[in-house]
Amino acid sequence: MTERLRVGVIGAGAIAQVAHLPTLRRMKDVEVAVVCDSDLPKARAVANRFKINDAFDDIDDVLRYEELDALVISTPNHLHESHAISALSAGLHVLVEKPLATSTKGVNHVIRQAKKSDRILMVGTNQRYRPDVETVRGFVESGELGKVDSVRGSWHVFRPSRLQLGWRLRQELAGGGAMLDLGLAVLDIGLWLAGNPVPTRVSAVLNRMSERSVEHSGSAFVVCENGASIFLDVTWNHIGDGERFGAGVRGSKGTASINPFVVWKQMHGAPVNVSPTTSWGRETPYQASFRAEWAHFLAAIRGQAKAPPLEDQVTLHQVLDAIYQSAEENRDIKL
Description:
The protein has 335 residues and is an alpha/beta fold. The chain has helices at residues 14-25, 40-49, 59-65, 77-89, 104-117, 131-141, 162-165, 171-174, 178-193, 285-301, 311-329; strands at residues 5-10, 30-36, 54-56, 70-73, 93-97, 121-124, 148-156, 199-208, 215-224, 229-235, 244-251, 254-258, 262-267, 270-273, 333-334. The strands form 2 sheets. A 9-stranded mixed beta sheet has the order 14-13-12-11-7-10-9-8-15, covered by helices on one side. It has a 6-stranded parallel beta sheet with strand order 3-2-1-4-5-6, with helices on both faces. The longest helix has 19 residues, at 311-329.
């Protein structure tokens, strides 16, 4: 592996243009060598904008002609599994946007290939890397909030048009609606902040415009083996002031919230605001999350850090399967 890592970008959509490419452009030890998209004019336009040498419309051409160390995969959901397996089989490290696959079976398939190829595989759980989320996680890990009893998370956005959602409205391409698109990230944060307890029971409600459409909103309640609970609520149809993303942790000795960021502890028999007086700088938490995620991925490739356990992805998708089953059958689902 060369000292300066050569990276390819598969999928030239919004997440690549808004998050990955601007982040990589600021990293001196990374060279983005190629961008690939099924829409070749788009791939060429993005390559020109970010000063990338090559553009292709087929991942097989990327793997055939480019000498790379890693790929980031940000294609539509139904392609994640096959693209990740192709890249891993070619000996490349892979950072793939969530979901890793559109089924638990597919998730296990990709993980087996990563282990067989002995390559780093990371899933884009960038919300974990937000500075406010990482700070709250630190309070949890130190035991300052006591035993975590519950985590509540929500992500509400306003995407009313078919143009804004595009392929996400098609079950065969997306694998699910708002619960997969937004809820998977909220569920991941909930379990991570709670210390990764084992989920045992799920109850959910999903809202659809019609029987044939994917869900535009939904809520789920997850009970864990240690008594902790995770509640999540998501929607593509938020009627309000801007996008809303946040989470709250309730522990036996304190509470914490994300967006707004506040931490309270019980001290000398009274609640005390112990929120750190930190500044996130000129970056938004969203921008900072992608920079930190890429730093972790690159450190894992170089053997300087461990990648997040891939078993986390299996658990997430097992819970997600139970959410859809619960909503479909109108009953609690035991895991």
